[in-house]
């Protein structure tokens, strides 16, 4: 999904949220900033963290909005949460993926100040965006809980949609070798599996069981894949002819789709 086929309601929703949050800039100025954000979400290489993800998160925020204190600030934070994205190899997927929360929060501060939002509103949006680096809202922070839950809601998708999500994430990191990506993904999944709760809001709690099933099944598949990679490496080192069985196996696995989590 690109800017040209973005849902028509997006800019209207952006404008409403800005105005409700106290923006004093003209409607044209507000819309111009919103259109620039759509351009960011439509950048090449965004296979998952794109406009479709933005619209999904906004829809989930609306679904949970009754639990928020300042829903329009949560919506603005959703717009900015992945505005700056870098899937380059220098970005460590295992730690934060390609979403740069700090840079996105700084962008939010600059642009929302320019649109005339009150300082307290700007600061709150910045805090919410930065909080997504950890997805660990304070118990009393319902706005942050809703934003975190909306961002993680994809984990609770039905199997086919979850499978598509995995393929899209792998595509964003196609430059990473199979083993490196598998190890990084396992690290992320284990952190998720160890959490007492994946979702922090009362309504979001309804997604817990489905998300646990998806995360557990994916983790099981990838741990088996990693074990196969390690066995292949051990076999390769013991071959008298020096044939690299590990490289051959990874190549065939990628061809079969078994190496990619979305397969």
Descriptive overview:
With 263 residues, this protein is mainly alpha-helical. It has a single domain (3-256), classed as Catalytic domain of cyclic nucleotide phosphodiesterase 4b2b (Orthogonal Bundle). Helices cover 63% and strands 0% of the residues. The chain is built from 12 helices and no strands. It has helices at 9-20, 27-41, 51-64, 71-80, 93-96, 101-114, 119-131, 142-152, 159-172, 178-194, 208-238, 245-256. The chain is globular and about 70 Å long. It starts with 8 loop residues before the first helix and ends in a 7-residue tail after the last helix.
Break the fold down into its secondary structure elements and pairings.
Elements: H1 9-20, H2 27-41, H3 51-64, H4 71-80, H5 93-96, H6 101-114, H7 119-131, H8 142-152, H9 159-172, H10 178-194, H11 208-238, H12 245-256
Helix pairs in contact: 1-2, 1-4, 3-4, 3-8, 4-7, 4-8, 6-7, 10-11, 11-12
């Amino acid at each position: 999904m690109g800017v040209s086929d973005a849902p028509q309601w997006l800019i209207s929703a952006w404008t409403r949220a800005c105005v409700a949050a106290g923006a004093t800039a003209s409607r044209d100025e507000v819309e111009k900033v919103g259109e620039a954000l759509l351009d960011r979400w439509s950048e090449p290489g965004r296979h998952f963290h794109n406009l479709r993800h933005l619209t999904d998160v906004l829809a989930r925020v609306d679904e949970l909005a009754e639990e928020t204190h300042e829903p329009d600030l949560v919506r603005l934070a959703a717009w900015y949460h992945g505005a700056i994205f870098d899937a380059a190899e220098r970005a460590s997927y295992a730690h934060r993926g390609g979403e740069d929360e700090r840079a996105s929060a700084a962008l939010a501060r600059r642009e929302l100040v320019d649109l005339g939002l009150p300082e307290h509103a700007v600061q709150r949006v910045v805090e919410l965006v930065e909080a997504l680096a950890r997805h660990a809202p304070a118990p009393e922070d319902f706005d942050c809980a809703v934003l975190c839950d909306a961002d993680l809601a994809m984990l609770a998708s039905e199997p086919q949609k979850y499978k598509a999500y995995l393929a899209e994430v792998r595509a964003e990191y196609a430059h990473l070798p199979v083993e490196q990506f598998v190890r990084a993904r396992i690290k992320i999944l284990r952190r998720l599996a160890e959490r007492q709760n994946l979702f922090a809001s009362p309504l979001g709690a309804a997604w817990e069981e489905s998300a646990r099933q998806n995360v557990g099944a994916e983790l099981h598949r990838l741990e088996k894949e990693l074990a196969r990679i390690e066995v292949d490496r051990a076999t390769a080192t013991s071959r008298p002819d020096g044939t690299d069985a590990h490289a051959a196996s990874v190549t065939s696995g990628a061809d079969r789709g078994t190496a990619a989590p979305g397969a």
